[in-house]
Specification:
7-stranded mixed β-sheet
Length: about 120
């Protein structure tokens, strides 16, 4: 089982990035997908949720209207489109896959996003 994030990097405030998380080794279409982030010295927090049916999303107030989670089941990939980035968005971003039906919970290793001028 693998979750591999990519797409992180350095971006100026107000810029955009699209993160990808490629999944392998499990039935991607049956899993709820999540993006978390962890800033230096802080706890890991949830920033986006996509249900297993791929018809429902949730975001905290801190990113709502700026971040969009989506998935391509055919490619077993989940995305996080991040617009109007702010310095406080600087963090390592992780994807997570959960199947409550079978009790599986997988994490990727993360990709670093730095928002700075």
């Amino acid at each position: 089982v693998q979750l591999v994030e990519s797409g992180g990097g350095l971006v100026q405030p107000g810029g955009s990035l699209r993160l990808s998380c490629a999944a392998a080794g499990f039935t991607f279409g049956g899993y709820h997908m999540y993006w978390f982030r962890q800033a230096p010295g802080k706890e890991r927090v949830l920033v986006a949720t996509l249900n297993a049916s791929r018809n429902g999303t949730k975001y905290p107030d801190s990113v709502r209207g700026r971040f969009t989670i989506s998935a391509d089941n055919a490619e077993s990939t989940v995305y996080l489109q991040m617009n109007n980035l702010k310095p406080e968005d600087t963090a390592v971003y992780f994807c997570r896959a959960i199947s409550f039906l079978v009790g599986n919970d997988y994490w990727g290793k993360g990709t670093l996003v730095t928002v700075s001028s």
